[in-house]
């Protein structure tokens, strides 16, 4: 006999459920069940995974939710939670049950706060009236309901029953009966066999069973499941504590015991007998309860296709985007128009190639019926561009000529040999992904416009699941155990990119965890902490707005997904990216890219500084162009059309080859700087290859070294077979791109590119790969390839196929890479101002400031009248020659922004910038109404230096600070405010003028410290400069001098850590890259196992480092360090200072 | 009611229900139908490890409340027995009439 569990939470019930849908479905199927429900708390978070898991396990999915019920409003108008019920969707109703469930859940979330932590917000839940209205069939009357509500032990009725308040329980239940359709109601009976008197005890279940009997309603037996087996109970305790933000010891409502697992049919049957016997109904009562449970299960079996639209793509109606003709006809017409725009003049051969490709693509699109999809994406893309926002398609969408012609992508697929089938083929029925990168600062505006354009009923944001990772898991496990915050913090700080599941293993292996490992030994609580951390690994914590996914559908969208508020104020689906395909949802990735914002800002600065074409051409050293007036991409008003800049500028490639690429998109990381140093890209295709090579797969499998050897001609190119020469020539015989894998399949088997892409997707899949191999070998042999060649080529496909890179991705990425390098080459001040403003890269802003300093670009200090809310490029006037100082021409510098000051509120910032300029401190106080704290911060950063200079006072910055600190600012009474239109008398700043010079000016080191504290940027000088004497004594080598050393020299370097990376490496041994900045450049240090051992906890925890290592030449322009040992520079006592020698101590004169 | 813990030997029916206890060298016969439940343990205070895959018995223990007597004429004593699922061992955890007896 089988049993169907109708109340089961999965791990996707955040901070509640323990087990994954796959585990649950498999366990149920293994026990002989033919259906299983998923009733996550508050939503359908795990439902689609449950659907797939059930289909895989060969059982029927049942879909429901565990929801709070809200009672009558209290005096403050807030509806309190009265309890929780399970709501199940009726199946086989052409989706009506599922639709009602989706809408009900959206009701529950309507008006709630996106952050669950907000105590004062409306709780997630529904009223009885809402339940009743959603449960009733649309048709009304006596028809079968669409939903079934299980009133169980956690409901208001159940709570009353637990405390034996029978009369109260009956009254409460009558209210349920009065408001709900009778057929939509059932009583849930749960027995966890807890101690007598506690929740879910046998007696509690008995009372619920008797209630059902009395009311003549079906009694449904469930086990209120939270974990697949008994082992999960402890994890559930930890999750309960984490949810309540307290320790297990202090949690008043821990589960009564650990019996809430997916019990077997035999166990459930015996439970039914025990409850029924105790209730006095005997075995007949037990059979009736089990029969009723199975009957309800049958009524709720979902047909994934009929009920939930499984795998049926839905796109917006063509009419929404203003198309009233057949979408395909419209698409063809728009492509024709695109040809005129993108390919104004073509030779006949190219024209034929273009036509062939277009016919091919349109044929596939027509066959799949995706015309409206392409038109929809084109509509969004045109809308974004129309907003004046920089946008670029990324990903495999760049493989499509149709996308290029519609203006969705900006890479010509024909020019780069990109294959359409990598994007879409007749064998793929799922909607393809098109990703659009937009300026990050404009992303939210873009979202709002999409909602306006398509209507709120057709659009919702996609969500993402945030799971526990090592640090969060340690923190919550520690809290659950009741450990002290500082103890937890000490452990959490040392955790670095390993999965929490392997905590114990990591303790044994990782040198930086040595201290913790020692403390764990013999400390019971820390030992438990390790176990509990492992238990929490990967469990979902909460959902949040996905950084880029927008779901577009037709008017049925909100019948197919529940939505809840997001932080952005727009509704967010409860489904994540894995749910899109199964649910037939069209997801558009509109990704905010900070680099696009930084470049947009740079372009705006160029236009502001150079109002004519002539100015811009001169400032950027741009070529004279066709008419000698400058190139066409510089417009008459001095602005630059960045997307029109040709991709072949030699100066830009010079900059890239120099490896001074900090700030450039994709190529600024230590590893990338090493790679471009070795590779020396000279053209756009090189950049595509570079970006595609710098991936975990190629790096791990040693593709890079042979590629470089062939590229530089150090080793002859090798092709496994001549037939592959055309396929692999651009990468010198090394397989780098998916496109090459596809063509290799096609050449050897003649399978066609569409099938080739299907085969590629199966590579690396343990179950499917053997059949791919069989096919490949058989077909290749038929075509006469020798066994040796087949072996070799298969080996390559097997090794590279699963992780090679899509060339279309690389091509789409390489465009902003090139554009950013081009801007850095020609307009470095504007470019860096954009970088400071939008902070797009992996490095702290202070490193980019150091880069500006290195490039000789003046960093202009904060100034109350010149600094604005943004980093602005400013002209620094020429300085005529004076004795001892040569003349200096006019330069462009970057003025620091007030927005970077720690503790300055947005409102203060607005008031300050609105009132600029100020003629005195009093003026600033009166008009910008800034507090003393802000005044002091501004003063300590030197923002009043120029005001003070104008008064001619000899007082120092310290004097001013002292004055501000002692004299409380007393603003003049309101009556002295200037009336509108009255001009303030320019009195000058008497306050500053009268300051008496008493204190010395702060030292450079003090100023730098202040700047780091308040701006996180060292402006006046590099932080490391103040360590100058110490570094000299240590004999430290500067970053810029490394390149002149012999390979393998032992040196000491010192600097501020700017990056730490642990890329995956061949052989699985971890390598740690640490980059130090010393003001003259970056030193990239590689720590292998032994150096990691020696460095121990300093490896990840130290900011200022001293490293001893061996120089390692990485290319013509590249020199890195293989680290041997490291110290904390701030811990002077530990440093390897040279021992004072006797001769030195007595001074030079007395020696000899 | 006394609270302590003392090992006891228990003879069970095939269904796992206690029939007789051998406690302090004397054999008690279980008189009425015993009551069984699963009682929470504050495992984080008591256990040294809670590793994944440890199995049942960490969060709760099986408790049987039995009424037993030495001979048909001796008084019924009510005892709570804890059954460790993993080791199969039994312990007396509560004697409900201890106070009355000692008075």
Element pattern of chain B in H and E: EEEEHEEEH
What value does the average pLDDT of chain B take? 86
Tell how many strands the DSSP assignment of chain A holds.
22
Tell me about the largest β-sheet of chain A. 7 strands, mixed
Q: Give the overall silhouette of chain B.
A: elongated
Radius of gyration of chain B: 15 Å
Percent range of helical residues of chain A: 40-55%
- Biggest protein-protein contact in the assembly: A-B, 31 and 25 residues
The CA-CA distance between the termini of chain A, in Å, is 103 Å
**How many angstroms separate the termini of chain B?**
12 Å
Tell me the Rg of chain A in angstroms: 35 Å
Low-confidence stretches of chain B: 99-103
Describe this structure in words.
The complex is a heterodimer of chains A (1152) and B (103). Chain A contains 49 helices and 22 strands. Chain A is an alpha/beta fold. The longest helix of chain A is centred in the N-terminal third of the chain and has 21 residues, at 348-368. In chain A, 43% of the residues lie in helices and 12% in strands. Chain A is globular. Chain B is mainly beta and 103 residues long. Chain B has helices spanning 43-46, 98-102, and strands at residues 2-12, 18-23, 26-30, 35-40, 60-69, 77-83, 90-95. The radius of gyration of chain B is 15 Å and the shape is elongated.
TL;DR of this structure?
Chain A is of the alpha/beta class and 1152 residues long. Chain B is elongated.
Keywords:
heterodimer, A: alpha/beta, 22 strands, globular, disordered C terminus, B: 103 residues, mainly beta, 2 helices, 9% helix
List the helices and strands and how they pair.
The complex is a heterodimer of chains A (1152) and B (103).
Chain A: H1 21-30, E1 35-41, H2 47-57, E2 60-70, E3 81-89, H3 96-109, E4 126-127, H4 128-135, E5 147-151, H5 156-162, H6 166-179, E6 185-189, H7 202-215, E7 219-221, H8 233-244, H9 265-279, H10 282-300, H11 304-308, H12 327-342, H13 348-368, H14 371-386, E8 391-394, H15 401-406, E9 435-439, H16 443-454, E10 459-467, H17 470-481, H18 485-493, H19 503-509, H20 514-520, H21 524-536, E11 540-552, H22 557-560, E12 563-565, E13 571-573, H23 577-580, E14 586-593, H24 594-609, H25 613-619, H26 650-657, H27 670-679, H28 684-693, H29 696-700, H30 704-711, H31 725-728, H32 738-749, H33 753-762, H34 769-782, H35 787-800, H36 807-826, H37 828-838, H38 845-854, E15 859-860, E16 872-876, E17 891-895, H39 906-915, H40 921-928, H41 932-940, H42 945-951, H43 957-966, H44 990-993, H45 1004-1015, H46 1028-1034, E18 1050-1061, E19 1072-1077, E20 1082-1087, H47 1089-1095, H48 1098-1101, E21 1104-1113, E22 1119-1128, H49 1142-1145
Parallel strand pairs in A: 1-2, 2-4, 5-6, 6-7, 9-14, 15-17, 20-22
Antiparallel strand pairs in A: 2-3, 3-5, 8-9, 10-11, 11-14, 12-13, 16-17, 18-19, 18-21, 19-20, 21-22
Helix pairs in contact in A: 1-2, 3-4, 5-6, 7-9, 8-17, 9-10, 12-14, 17-18, 17-21, 24-36, 24-37, 26-36, 28-36, 32-33, 34-35, 36-37, 37-38, 41-43
Chain B: E1 2-12, E2 18-23, E3 26-30, E4 35-40, H1 43-46, E5 60-69, E6 77-83, E7 90-95, H2 98-102
Antiparallel strand pairs in B: 1-2, 1-7, 2-3, 3-5, 4-5, 5-6, 6-7
């Amino acid at each position: 006999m089988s049993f169907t569990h109708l109340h089961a939470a999965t791990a996707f019930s955040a901070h509640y459920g323990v087990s994954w849908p796959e585990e649950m479905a498999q366990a149920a199927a293994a026990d002989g069940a033919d259906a299983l429900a998923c009733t996550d708390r508050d939503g359908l978070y795990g439902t689609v995974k449950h659907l797939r898991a059930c289909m895989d396990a060969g059982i029927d999915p049942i879909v429901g939710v565990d929801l709070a019920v809200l009672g009558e409003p209290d005096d403050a108008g807030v509806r309190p939670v009265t309890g929780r019920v399970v709501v199940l969707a009726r199946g086989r109703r052409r989706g009506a049950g599922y639709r009602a469930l989706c809408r009900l859940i959206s009701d529950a979330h309507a008006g709630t706060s996106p952050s669950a932590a907000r105590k004062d917000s409306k709780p997630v839940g529904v009223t009885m009236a809402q339940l009743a209205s959603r449960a009733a069939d649309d048709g009304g009357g006596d028809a079968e309901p669409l939903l079934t509500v299980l009133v169980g032990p956690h409901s208001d009725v159940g709570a009353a029953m637990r405390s034996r308040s029978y009369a109260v329980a009956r009254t409460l239940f009558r209210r349920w009966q009065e408001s709900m359709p009778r057929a939509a109601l059932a009583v849930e009976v749960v027995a966890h066999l807890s101690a007598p008197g506690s929740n879910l005890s046998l007696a509690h279940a008995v009372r619920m069973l008797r209630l059902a009997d009395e009311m003549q309603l079906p009694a449904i037996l469930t086990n209120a499941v939270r974990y697949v087996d008994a082992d999960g109970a402890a994890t559930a305790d930890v999750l309960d504590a984490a949810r309540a933000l307290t320790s297990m010891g202090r949690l008043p409502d821990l589960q009564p015991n650990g019996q809430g697992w997916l019990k077997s049919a035999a166990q459930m049957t015996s439970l039914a007998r025990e409850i029924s016997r105790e209730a006095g109904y005997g075995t007949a009562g037990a059979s009736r309860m089990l029969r009723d449970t199975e009957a309800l299960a049958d009524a709720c079996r979902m047909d994934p296709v009929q009920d939930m639209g499984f795998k049926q793509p839905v796109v917006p109606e063509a009419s929404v985007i203003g198309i009233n003709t057949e979408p395909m006809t419209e698409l063809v017409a728009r492509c024709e128009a695109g040809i005129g725009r993108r390919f104004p003049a073509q030779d006949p051969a190219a024209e034929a190639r273009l036509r062939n490709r277009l016919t091919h693509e349109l044929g596939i699109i027509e066959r799949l019926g995706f015309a409206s999809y392409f038109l929809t994406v084109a509509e969004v893309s045109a809308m974004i561009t129309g907003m004046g926002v920089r946008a670029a398609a990324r990903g495999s969408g760049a493989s499509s000529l149709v996308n290029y012609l519609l203006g969705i992508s900006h890479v010509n697929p024909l020019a780069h040999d990109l294959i359409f089938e990598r994007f879409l083929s007749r064998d793929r029925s799922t909607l393809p992904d098109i990703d659009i990168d937009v300026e990050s600062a404009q992303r939210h505006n873009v979202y709002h416009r999409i909602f306006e354009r398509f209507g709120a009923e057709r659009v919702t944001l996609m969500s993402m699941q945030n799971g526990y990772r090592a640090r969060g898991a340690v923190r919550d496990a520690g809290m659950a155990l009741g450990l002290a915050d500082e103890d937890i913090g000490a452990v959490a700080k040392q955790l670095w990119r390993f999965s929490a599941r392997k905590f114990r293993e990591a303790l044994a292996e990782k040198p930086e965890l040595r201290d913790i490992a020692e403390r764990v030994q013999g400390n019971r609580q820390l030992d438990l902490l390790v176990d509990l951390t492992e238990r929490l690994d990967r469990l979902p914590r909460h959902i949040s707005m996905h950084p880029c996914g927008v779901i577009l559908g037709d008017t049925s969208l909100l019948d197919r997904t529940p939505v809840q508020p997001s932080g952005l104020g727009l509704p967010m689906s409860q489904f994540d990216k894995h749910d899109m395909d199964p649910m037939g949802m069209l997801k558009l990735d509109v990704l905010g890219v900070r680099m696009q914002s930084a470049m947009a800002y740079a372009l705006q600065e160029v236009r502001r500084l150079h109002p004519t074409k002539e100015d811009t051409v001169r400032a950027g050293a741009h070529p004279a162009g066709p008419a000698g007036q400058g190139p066409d991409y510089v417009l008459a008003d001095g602005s630059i059309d960045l997307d029109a800049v040709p991709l072949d500028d030699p100066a830009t490639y010079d900059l890239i080859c120099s490896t001074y690429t900090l700030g450039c998109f994709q190529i600024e990381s230590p590893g990338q700087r090493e790679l471009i140093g070795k590779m020396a890209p000279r053209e756009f295709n090189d950049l595509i290859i570079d970006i595609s090579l710098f991936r975990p797969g190629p790096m791990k499998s040693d593709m890079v070294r042979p590629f470089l050897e062939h590229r530089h001609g150090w080793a002859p190119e090798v092709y496994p077979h001549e037939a592959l020469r055309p396929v692999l020539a651009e990468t010198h015989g090394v397989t780098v791109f998916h496109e090459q894998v596809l063509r290799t399949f096609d050449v050897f088997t003649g399978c066609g590119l569409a099938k080739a892409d299907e085969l590629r997707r199966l590579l690396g899949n343990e179950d499917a790969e053997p059949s791919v191999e069989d096919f490949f070998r058989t077909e290749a042999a038929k075509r006469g390839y020798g066994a040796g060649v087949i072996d070799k080529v298969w080996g390559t496909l097997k090794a590279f196929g699963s992780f090679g890179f899509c060339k279309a991705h690389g091509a789409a990425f390489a465009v902003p890479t090139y554009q950013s390098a081009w801007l850095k080459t020609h307009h470095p001040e504007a470019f860096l101002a954009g970088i400071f403003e939008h902070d797009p890269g992996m490095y702290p802003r202070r490193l980019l400031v150091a880069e500006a300093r290195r490039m000789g670009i003046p960093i202009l200090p904060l100034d109350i009248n010149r600094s604005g809310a943004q980093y602005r490029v400013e002209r620094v006037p020429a300085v005529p020659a004076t004795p001892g100082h040569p003349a200096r021409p006019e330069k462009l510098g970057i003025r620091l922004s007030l927005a970077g000051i720690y503790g300055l509120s947005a409102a203060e910032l607005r008031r300050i910038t609105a009132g600029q300029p100020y003629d005195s401190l009093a003026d600033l106080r009166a008009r910008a109404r800034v507090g003393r704290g802000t005044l002091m911060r501004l003063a300590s950063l030197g923002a009043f230096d120029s005001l003070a200079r104008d008064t001619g006072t000899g007082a120092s910055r310290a004097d001013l600070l002292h004055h501000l600190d002692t004299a409380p600012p007393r603003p003049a009474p309101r009556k002295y405010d200037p009336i509108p239109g009255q001009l303030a008398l320019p009195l000058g700043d008497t306050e500053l003028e009268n300051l008496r010079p008493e204190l010395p000016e702060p030292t450079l080191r003090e100023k730098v410290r202040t700047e780091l504290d308040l701006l996180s940027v060292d402006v006046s000088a590099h932080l490391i400069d103040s360590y100058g004497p110490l570094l000299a004594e240590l004999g430290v080598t500067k970053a810029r001098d490394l390149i002149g050393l012999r390979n393998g020299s032992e040196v000491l370097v010192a600097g501020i850590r700017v990056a730490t990376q642990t890329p995956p490496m061949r052989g699985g041994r971890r390598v740690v890259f640490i980059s130090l900045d010393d003001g003259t450049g970056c030193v990239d240090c590689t720590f292998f196992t032994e150096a990691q051992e020696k460095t121990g906890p300093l490896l990840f925890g130290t900011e200022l480092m001293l490293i001893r290592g061996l120089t390692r030449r990485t290319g013509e322009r590249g020199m890195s360090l293989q680290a041997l040992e490291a110290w904390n520079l701030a811990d002077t006592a530990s440093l390897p200072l040279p021992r004072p020698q006797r001769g030195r101590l007595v001074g030079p004169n007395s020696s000899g | 009611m006394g609270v302590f813990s003392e090992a006891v030997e228990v003879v069970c029916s095939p269904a796992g229900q206690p029939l007789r206890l051998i406690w302090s060298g004397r054999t008690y016969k279980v008189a009425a139908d015993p009551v069984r439940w699963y009682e929470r343990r504050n495992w984080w205070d008591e256990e040294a490890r809670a590793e994944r895959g440890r199995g049942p018995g960490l969060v709760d223990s099986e408790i049987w409340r039995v009424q037993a007597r030495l001979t048909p004429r001796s008084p019924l004593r009510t005892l709570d027995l804890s059954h460790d699922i993993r080791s199969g061992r039994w312990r007396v955890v509560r004697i409900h009439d201890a106070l009355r007896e000692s008075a």
